[in-house]
Structure formats: C-alpha cells, structure tokens
C-alpha cells in the first residue's frame, strides 16, 4: 500500500502514466480509494478509520484542485504531497505497526518506515551497491573520504577524485567539459555530481557501470583521468603507517584488513554512499520541518507538472 502511494505521487498525479488523456486526478482518486477498500475488505474486523479519514481529506483536496485545473491553473503538487500524501503515509505506517503488527522487510530500495521521500532515511543505499552493511561505523566512509581527496591514487600524485568532483561546487567542476589533468586534454563529458550517485541504478552517461565500486576502478585506471595502477597505489599506500592503521580499523572483523584494491574501492564507494543531498530548504519544507517562499512552490509545481521530468528521482531532486 505504501509503495502504491509512492507510485501515486511519482507517476500518477502528474499524468506520467496518462500523458495524452491527462486523467491523473481521477486516477489518483480511484487509486487512493482502492487502498482503503483493499484494507477494509482484507481485514474486516480492523479499524482503519485513520487511513480512511486521511484518504477522504486527500480526495476532497483533489476535487478542489480539479476545479482550479479546469480553469487553467497548475495543480498544487507541493501542498498535495506535504499536507495530504504524507498524512496518508503516516496513517498506513501506523496501521501496519499497530493494527496489522508487522514490520516491513527493508530489502527494498525504499525504507517503508520513512515518513516522506524527501529525507535520507527514505532510501536504502545498500540496495544499489555490492556493499553490505558493516559494523565498523564511520571508519569505512572516513577512509573513503581520505582516499577521495588524496592524489595518491593517480599516477603522478597530482590528481584526486576531488580535482574534478569539487565539494565546493556540489562535487562538479563547473566546466562544460572536464579537463584531463594528466594529458592536458578535454574529456568528452562534463563532471557530474557524486551527490546521490549511490542511488543510481547505472553510472556514467552511457550507463556502462552498475555499481560504485566498479566505477571508481574505471576512473583510477583511465589514462585520461588518473592513470593509476592498483598495484602501485597499494604499494604507495603501504608506505603510510596512518593508512595501514585506518585500513585495519575500517576492515576490522573481515578476512582482509590489509590495504588492497578491493578495500580501496569499497571505501571510496562507502564514502560516496554517505553523500546524499536531502537537506535543502525545499526538502525540509516537504517534510513539514520548515517553510519556503511561494515562488519556490510555484516553480516546483510547474517543474513537476508541465516539464517532462516526472519520474521518482525528479520529484525531489531540486
Ligand atoms: C579528470 C576528472 C575526473 C576525475 C579525476 C574523477 N572523475 Fe569522476 N567523473 C568525471 C567525468 C567526466 C564523469 C562522467 C563520465 C561519463 O559519464 O562517462 C565522471 C563520473 C563519475 C561518477 C558517475 C556519476 C554518474 O552520475 O554517473 C562517479 C560516481 C564518479 N565520477 C566518482 C569519481 C571517483 C570516486 C573518482 C576518484 C577515484 C573520480 N570520479 C575521479 C571526471 C572525473
């Protein structure tokens, strides 16, 4: 039911599933009612009045919006999400926990205990990588951060990941096309941000890489980027007692605590996994934890409604 609600907001109400006939509002009403109906029919003796009430309020809002939309106004996606979808989701979480008494198995990309889609906790980044949750707390991402900023990964110790993915420029370099430091050339593409890269199913413009670990391998070895050789990199890192110590702490309890190619790639991926951008004023406003000016809301409504950018990543990536 909660996944259905996500679908309603990401692909239903904005006419994504019915781009020509534009019946998003009536379809959303039907989909919301179906949530109530299925629950009430499946568990006849349970009291789902909180779910039913929140759905009734959402439907009443949709009816009011339909009149505005008929007059040519933009649908108010912002208010619909914050004031109506979130309460329905909360009522479903409450029903699952207190009435049906089961916890979600969070093996999915979405954490069903999260209240909104506009918070870090809503996404299970491990779903998208080969990584497994480890018990070493912050050590692995910390190691990854050190490596990300350390030119030691490149052949001439001059280029780090952060030479192109600059933190003060949202992990881009601001150039139309990136600069290949080692060969004084221009790379064929620009540097995308690494923020939220951990939530992508494919990486690179040609989607040639599926997980972050493999991505870093490609970059380190690419002769136009870092031209590194992992054997050499491992040897260089082994000269540092600090790196040796941090590797052994970061991988404590696993088979391999020595510095290795695999360890470097895992650490880099773990660091990037922590780089999620869910704390903009807009995210906070969507969570009901802050306010935002009306022009921003108007802009979001136009962007989300009229533009073609209507899939899940776009509903919040602002
Ligand atoms: C010389 C500049 C440069 C360096 C150094 C560099 N990158 Fe990149 N990075 C790029 C470019 C350009 C792309 C886009 C490539 C493409 O789409 O084919 C990219 C793509 C990526 C992506 C994929 C993002 C996406 O949305 O698909 C990730 C993740 C990434 N880099 C991480 C790293 C890491 C980790 C390092 C260090 C090991 C690194 N980069 C070093 C320029 C660089």
Would you kindly provide a brief summary of this structure?
By secondary structure, the chain is mainly α. The protein has helices spanning 2-12, 24-42, 49-70, 77-99, 139-148, 161-164, 212-221, 230-238, 241-250, 261-273, 281-286, 294-305, 312-316, and strands at residues 179-180, 185-186. The chain is 48% helix and 1% strand.
Would you kindly provide a written description of the structure presented here, covering whatever features stand out?
The protein is mainly α and 318 residues long. The chain has two domains: 2-123 and 288-316, no CATH class; 126-273, Cytochrome Bc1 Complex, Chain D, domain 2. It contains 13 helices and two strands; from the N terminus they run H-H-H-H-H-H-E-E-H-H-H-H-H-H-H. The chain has a two-stranded antiparallel sheet with strand order 1-2. Helix 1 packs antiparallel against helix 2, helix 2 (24-42) runs antiparallel to helix 3 and helix 3 packs antiparallel against helix 4. It is elongated, with a radius of gyration of 23 Å. The two termini are 26 Å apart. The protein binds heme C. Residues 148, 153, 159, 161, 163-165, 178, 180-181, 187, 189, 191-192, 194, 197, 200, 203-205, 212, 215-216, 219-220, 225-226, 268, 272 line the site of heme C.
């Amino acid at each position: 039911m909660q996944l259905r609600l996500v679908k309603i907001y990401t692909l239903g109400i904005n006419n994504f599933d019915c781009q020509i006939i534009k019946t998003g509002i009536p379809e959303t009403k039907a989909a919301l009612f179906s949530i109530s109906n299925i629950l009430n029919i499946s568990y006849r003796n349970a009291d789902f009045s909180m779910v039913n009430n929140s759905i009734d309020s959402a439907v009443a809002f949709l009816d009011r919006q339909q009149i505005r939309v008929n007059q040519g106004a933009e649908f108010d996606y912002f208010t619909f999400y914050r004031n109506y979808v979130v309460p329905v989701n909360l009522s479903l979480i409450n029903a699952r926990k207190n009435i049906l008494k089961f916890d979600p198995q969070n093996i999915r990309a979405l954490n069903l205990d999260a209240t909104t889609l506009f918070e870090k906790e809503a996404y299970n980044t491990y779903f998208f990588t080969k990584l497994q949750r480890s018990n070493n707390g912050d050590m692995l991402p910390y190691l990854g951060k050190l490596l990300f900023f350390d030119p030691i990964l490149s052949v001439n110790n001059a280029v780090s990941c952060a030479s192109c993915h600059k933190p003060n420029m949202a992990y881009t370099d601001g150039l139309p096309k990136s600069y290949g430091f080692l060969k004084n050339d221009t790379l064929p593409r620009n540097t995308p941000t690494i923020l939220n890269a951990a939530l992508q199913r494919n990486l690179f413009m040609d989607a040639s890489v599926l997980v972050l670990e493999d991505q870093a391998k490609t970059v380190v070895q690419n002769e136009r980027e870092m031209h590194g050789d992992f054997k050499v990199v491992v040897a260089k890192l082994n000269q540092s007692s600090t790196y040796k110590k941090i590797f052994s702490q970061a991988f404590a309890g696993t088979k391999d605590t020595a510095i290795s190619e695999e360890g470097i790639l895992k650490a880099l991926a773990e660091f990037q996994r922590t780089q999620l951008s869910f704390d903009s004023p807009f995210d906070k406003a969507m969570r009901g934890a802050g306010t935002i000016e009306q022009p921003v809301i108007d802009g979001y409504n136009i962007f989300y409604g009229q533009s073609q950018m209507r899939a899940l990543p776009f509903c919040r990536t602002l």
